[in-house]
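Revision sheet: structure tokens.
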Amino acid sequence: MSSQLRAFGSHRVRTAGGLGQRSLMAWQVLSALFLLAMGGIHLYLALTGVSGVLGVLFILNAVGALALAIAMVVLRRRLLLAACVLGLLFIGGTLLALVLAMTVGLFGIGETLHGRLVPTTLVVESIGVIVLLVTTALVARRQRTV
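Predicted:
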């Protein structure tokens, strides 16, 4: 086990040094998976019928999600925090765009809850926002303590 021992009075106490790093990496991987799922949904929709400007935007969404997912597991320190914030804004923005398309319309595009993969997308992106929010908070907290 790679955790550290710290003297506490006459006792030795195990700190969460090693365990904390593994936990953070788990959150990073989970964040990357949600970004990939969101990008995968958009790529699937673009390849199976969504065309025009929206289809191009969906493909760009998939490319951006892939880039951010890679950044989530590769980057460290301040660059990791930037990737977390960008990932959070990215997945939150796509969720907001879907909600707007379902309610008031977005750029002339309307969507319903019965649309193809809409319920799945709502779930994936909502949970993804929460996961990325936790990951961002953990990374920010770690940077304050280092």
